[in-house]
Amino acid sequence: MALAKRNEGAKVNSDINVTPMVDVMLVLLIIFMVVTPMLQKGISVDMAKVNNPEQMPDADKEDALLVSITRDGKVYFGSEQIQDVDGLTQKVKDRLSNKADKRVYVKADMRTRFGGVVKVVDSVRAAGVDDLGLLTDQRKTNTAPPAPPAAAGQ
User: Fold this and answer.
1) Is 60 exceeded by the pLDDT of residue 135?
2) What are the extents of the domains in the chain?
3) CA angle 106, 109, 111 (to 5 degrees)
4) Fewer CB atoms inside 10 A, N or C side of the chain?
5) Which residue, 114, 106, 96, 98, is CA-closest to 132?
6) Cα separation of 133 and 129, whole Å?
7) b/e for 88-118, b at 16 or more Cβ within 10 A?
8) Comparing 18-22, 51-55, 64-68, 145-149, which segment has the lowest mean pLDDT?
């Protein structure tokens, strides 16, 4: 019986192949990129549309205080549903207690009853809010703006 001689002098390949690890990391990155927007969905509100809204870039910040009113009159503070509008005042006070910028944004569905919006605004004002912003969407227009009226003397 002949035994094969092992080459004692050959070097062992000790390089680590990182290609499978990179593949797994890219798959995880893609999964997180797809899932994250779904988790940050928020409350769906069809806001009123205006021609020339004022830009409020702070409303999109993560720490912005947002009160949403849905079509059926449900009130949300952030993503938490508020059962009693009077309880909203205390929740806003608690959140504003450690913030220097006392600004709250109200986002109401355009089919919400006006009285419900007024109650929410009153509750927010009662919490000591310095600045209250009503959020709207810009109306999409396909027509050119109207021409200025002609001068009377021409």
Assistant:
1) yes
2) 49-138
3) 140
4) N
5) 106
6) 10
7) bbebbeebbeeeeebbbbbbbbeebeeebbe
8) 145-149
Please tell me the distance from the alpha carbon of residue 135 to that of residue 137, in angstroms, as a whole number: 7
**Residue 41 predicted with pLDDT over 80:** no
What six digits make up the tokens of 123?
Answer: 């509750």
Nearest to 65 by CA among 34, 110, 100: 100
For residue 50, give every residue at least 6 positions away whose Cβ sits within 8 Å of its Cβ, in sequence order, or none: 136, 137, 138, 139
* Each residue's pLDDT tens digit, 106-132: 888 888 888 888 999 999 889 888 788
pTM of the full predicted structure? 0.58
For β-strands 65-69 and 103-108, DSSP reports them as: parallel
Domain 49-138 bears CATH identifier 3.40.50.1480: no
* 112 in Cβ contact with 46 (< 8 Å): no
